[in-house]
Amino acid sequence: MEVTASMVKELRDKTNAGMMDCKKALKETDGDMEKAIDYLREKGLSQAAKKADRIAAEGLTTAIISADGKTGVVVEVNSETDFVAKNEEFHNFVQDVAKVVVENTPADVEALKAVVLESGKTVQETLTDKIAKIGENMSIRRFAAEKVNNGAVVGYIHGGGKISVIVALESEGDKEALEVLGKDLAMQVAAMNPKYISTDDVDQEFIAHEREVLIAQALNEGKPQNIVEKMVEGRLQKELKEVCLLEQAFVKDGDLTVKKVIANTAAKLGKDIKIAGVQRFEVGEGIEKKSENFADEVAKQMGK
């Protein structure tokens, strides 16, 4: 398979590896992007595992909590440019969409779009009106909800809506104390972006894949075969501490793990606390968008 310049650029953006290393990796893996990322990691030339996919789409996320504090939702609505993402009317629409999700619990985005609002129009019809008025394409991309029977769901919005998080805490403890803890945990999730809540949640395929990559990495570093296994297990455990929320160092006090922070609060309240669910949305994650320079973007907005 021919390796194109755009493929090399994409791999370089995802891994921060050198251009020639990216080209070689793609040649060695017959143009398979994921295998090329693993190849660079094995050679110690990439930090890809710790880098999120390049984020390029614009828009907003938001998080809102129901009046009783037991249900929380996060939504993402995309726009073409950052200009619209900062538009007050767009902000209000995103908030309205989140309220619709809380109040109507739609099954999916299509069901959400079909909900009829007080205006008599559906969410989709309202969105179409906004597109015509603002003059730019917009789309409701996704939403997620968390609910508890006892306890609290807490939300946190970072960067004016670039990242939104909800954390559901199941507990019979004092609601105010749970909300304080939940806010700290939501900020932790926003900052550290864990893939899992605990090590029990980790996909065994993920562990097997990481072990293979780490073994190849250690052997390529010239480490003796007889110590590679122990070394790899140590590195794997270190990696799991980074991707599992409960094992992460607490951002507000690096001497404590998140698990310990929760245990301390539970001890003070005399009630068990369990993280029942976590949702983290970051604007545009996983979406690639063609890049435009600033002048072109301004010209587009001015209709030139």
Summarize it.
With 304 residues, the protein is α+β, with helices and mostly antiparallel strands. It contains twelve helices and eight strands.
Explain what you see.
With 304 residues, the protein is of the alpha+beta class. Among the domains are: 1-51, Ubiquitin-associated (UBA) domain (Helicase, Ruva Protein, domain 3), CATH 1.10.8.10; 58-166 and 277-301, Tetrahydropterin Synthase, Chain A. The protein is built from twelve helices and eight strands. It has helices at 5-15, 19-28, 33-42, 82-85, 88-104, 109-114, 123-134, 175-192, 204-220, 225-243, 258-269, 294-301, and strands at residues 58-65, 71-79, 138-147, 151-158, 163-171, 249-250, 253-257, 273-282. A three-stranded antiparallel β-sheet has the order 1-2-3. The chain has a three-stranded antiparallel β-sheet with strand order 4-5-8, with helices on one face. Strands 6-7 form a two-stranded antiparallel ribbon. Helix 1 (5-15) crosses helix 3 (33-42).
